[in-house]
Amino acid sequence: MTTDTSKYKFNHSMLRIKDPQRSVKFYEHLGMSLIQKIPQPDAKFDLYFLAYDSPNAISHKAHWSDRQGILELTHNYGTEDDPNYKPANGNSDPGRGFGHVCISVDNIQAACQRIEDAGYRFKKKLSDGRMRHIAFALDPDDYWVEIISNNRVEDTEGIEETDPSTYQFNHTMIRVKDHTKSLQFYRETLGMSLLRTSESPSSGFNLYFLGYVPAANNNVNTATLEGVLELTWNYGTEKDEKFRYHDGNSEPQGFGHVAITVDDLDAACKRFEEEGVHWKKRLTDGRMKNVAFVLDPDGYWVEVVQNERYKATSKY
After folding, report:
1. Active-site residue among 28, 80, 116, 146?
2. pTM higher than 0.90 for the full model?
């Protein structure tokens, strides 16, 4: 029983939502398709899995477990009718931790205009501030959706057309307390590669971009990829013993987890055990024997699921 981390995929990121009709409509406007819905009426929640699935998409028609760049939306029944329910978007205390999801687009000026024309709001427009190459839209629950360009922003100025079928779910950002510990976990334990580092000493933070990309492709433009994890480290947090980021699963809830799929679930979990990981849920815990959750150094949940391409389980 062996496992090969080069076959792992950064499969999805999960967000809790208030109203599935509004949220699904928003992400479909961004070009995503609903590729899987898992109703759980007995437990009073439904799961919606969205991804880019046009003929232009990297994972077009692939099984959901054999993809990167999926967004899982979790809807707990009744929240849409509760005027007081609002998920925490991760960018203010006491729920600060998760930061945003990000899509990459063809012509960023036209893409942002299309989103604005549909009546959706922005946290930051392209014209705001000094960073004129990125924007942040707001989804119906005020989660931040970063928008970046596959092409040089200077080259797309004046282009009025955009094709959502060419968009990609590029990355998910979480804040980390100690970059050394987090990089070791995601690289050595989960088997990701460090694709790019962006250092901003004048602003007091670094960004680390990781993913499951063959070593030969490590110089690729990360904006053209799906399944990238961005770790944001603010200088000095590692020295504060009392400092903690919020994992999103205690109140106030919002972000839930990131998830990887693996070639052999039993072997992967055995390897994680040997690596000394902290578990939220082992395979043997509870009734769901086909899923495990490990904890990263900040307590973020990392779901581990079987990739059906390598070992069909007939459980999905």
Report:
1. 146
2. yes
